[in-house]
Here is the input.
Amino acid sequence: MEIGFSKQLDDAIVEISKLPGIGKRTALRLALHILKMERGDVQMLSDAIIALKDKVCYCRECHNLSDTELCEICANPKRNKQIVCVVRDIRDVVAIENTNQYNGVYHVLGGVIAPMEGIGPQHLNLDSLFQRVEAGGVGEVILALPATVDGDTTNFYIYRNIQGKVPAITTIARGIGIGDELEYTDEVTLGRSLLSRTEFEKSYIRRS
Here is the structure.
């Protein structure tokens, strides 16, 4: 969509529409809204975006997004470091934290194994998870990946690699529908699924 009478507006529309889920019409509405904003507000928006790119990093322990080398969750002495919840990405961390039912720490994989998309184990933060287990001190690994074929494939891959190396390997209860994403699950259902987690091996055998 080219407006034609303003190259600056056209350029803004092109750049905004590169964001996921943003079409050209939505990009136009956003660009026009920015034009109406006070210059100070536009500057704060611009600064926040630049800071997001320049200053946000990944936690060296769990790969969660953080402003520091160690994220707030891993650095919190009140969190139970013996329980590690394995999730796909930051959105799942947010979803679980919103339940107020979990006091352990996380390990963010950065995705799931998806052969059809060319994503293999080497593309995920799996080696660092296995190293955490090998180092000792982990009493339970909770597999909280999406209830999808790719999620189950990743769950089983992790299970095979840490079986016998950690006292308990559990998975969240399937109160979450098959194919559902954690980030879209209501907090009550997700919280109950965490509290009602089961041993992964028994869960896998029942579904096989």
